[in-house]
Specification:
About 40% of the residues lie in helices and about 15% in strands. With about 290 residues, it is α/β, with parallel strands linked by helices. It has one domain: NAD(P)-binding Rossmann-like Domain (Rossmann fold, 3-Layer(aba) Sandwich). β1, α1 and β2 form a beta-alpha-beta unit. The radius of gyration is 19 Å and the shape is globular. The model has no long low-confidence stretch (mean pLDDT about 95).
């Protein structure tokens, strides 16, 4: 099976590279320098030239606050370019594995969101990602869409790395405690995506949306506490104090869901994949820093 990974230099793309190392799949990695997905004709021609069995789209516009001002670029990358990729996959008859987000929900639920729950994004980022999902679904291609949340790893920029960086220069940190989600190791997401390829190749599966996240809901404050507890054990920087604050005390241009916990029971039922324990995913990443 030949797999094309778009966005191989991003956080998820680099984790996919790690996960594919011990497999027999023929993998073609491309970054923006090789395939800029905003160039529709180039992207289509390159995908057709490579002729993969599966396209993994690990590209995205993820600057949540910047998207509120940079509407055009957010929709270009998260919606229109995704539609072009999906239409090309439909033309080739290959599968598309695409990553989406908990931001497609409004965060007003008190129960974990299922894939079938009503979407209601509250900002440009979430809406652009939802439009991308819909473009994939309407293209007619074979697809798996993975919704995930609060992604972290040793690569790129993310909350974990920001906390450790701030700890080098701050004795006291203030972290939001009234937004709840499921911090998720990007290596776990990549592992799940690679595992689904066996179903596509040997077992068979149908197109659909699947939630992929860790098993432990927590606030940003709770996550920071876990990060620094582990940091002290392994000798990484940690502040003297971490104080909980309300999201209203840390205003941002984009609205964040107050509650974006995802129900992963469908993933388990269809692919026999259990959510990764938060601590296991966190400790694994921090051991590499």
């Amino acid at each position: 099976m030949k797999v094309l990974v778009l966005g191989s230099k991003g956080q998820l793309g680099r984790c996919l590279n790690d996960q594919f190392e011990n497999t027999d799949y023929k993998v073609v990695y491309t970054s923006r320098e090789k395939i800029d997905i905003s160039d529709f004709e180039l992207t289509k021609n390159k995908i057709i030239e490579i002729s993969p069995d599966v396209v993994v789209n690990a590209t995205a516009y993820t600057a949540v606050d910047k998207a509120e001002e940079d509407h055009e670029q957010a929709y270009l990358i998260n919606h229109i370019a995704v539609a072009n990729i999906a239409n090309t996959c439909q033309e080739l008859g290959c599968w598309l594995l695409h990553v989406s987000t908990d931001y497609v929900f409004d965060g007003t639920s008190s129960l974990p969101y299922k894939e079938s729950d009503k979407t209601n994004p509250q900002g440009v980022y979430g809406h652009s990602k939802l439009m991308g999902e819909r473009a994939v679904q309407s293209s007619g291609c074979k697809y798996l869409i993975f919704r995930t949340s609060w992604v972290f790893s040793e690569y790129g920029e993310n909350f974990l790395k920001s906390m450790l960086r701030l700890a080098k220069t701050h004795d006291v940190l203030r972290v939001v405690n009234n937004q709840v989600g499921c911090p998720t190791n990007a290596h776990y997401i990549a592992h799940v995506m690679v595992d689904t390829l066996a179903h596509i190749e040997n077992i068979g599966c149908t197109s659909g949306i699947y939630n992929v996240c860790s098993n432990r809901p927590c606030s940003w404050y709770d996550f920071a506490i876990k990060i620094f507890e582990r940091a002290r054990v392994i000798g990484l920087p940690a502040p003297h104090r971490v104080l909980p604050i309300s999201a209203s005390e840390y205003p941002t241009k984009a609205s964040r869901p107050a509650y974006s916990v995802l129900d992963c029971s469908k993933l388990n039922a269809h692919f026999n994949v259990d959510p990764l324990p938060l601590e296991k995913g966190l400790f694994s990443v921090m051991s590499k820093l």
